[in-house]
Amino acid sequence: MHAQKLPAAAGWRWLDAGFAIFRRNPLLLSMLVVSYWLTVIFLNLVPIIGAVAASMVIPGLTVGLMQAARDLEQGRPVGLQTLFGGIRQNPRALLALGALYLCCTLAILSLSALLDGGDLLRLILSTKPADREALESGSFFLPSVFVMALMAPVLMAWWFAVSYTHLTLPTNREV
Question: Concatenated DSSP letters for 66-100?
């Protein structure tokens, strides 16, 4: 891979192009994003299995959003099926990416347990409403900063991997 060196103005043009795509059909793109999040929320309502399932399908849903933006940009029709169509493209790679992301997240949360004895991990994994006093005590500040610092590169790599997987690997229809 060769990284291009571009002027800062290229970033602004990129943002402008993104908003231009959004302006083509803001209601549809908003509906797709809400559907994405509702899917993740409803999956997470199922204890344990739902959280694993959500982690596994998020890369496919993300690909669906990317495909919707690309289709809008190119004037092709976009619908709710576009969001879920991403799951059908490169399912092995996307499921593996979801599993890897889940493992990295759990590993980082487990490491945070060294700082707080596992309180943050228990709070995240708990099915009970969070104890307001525990959250307000500030005891989660250091573990939360630790988790955010370690998750930032994981999230950056994850977003790059989803984009790379979607743009470069053949789909099932091409194989």
Answer: HHHHHHHHTT----HHHHHHHHHSSHHHHHHHHHH
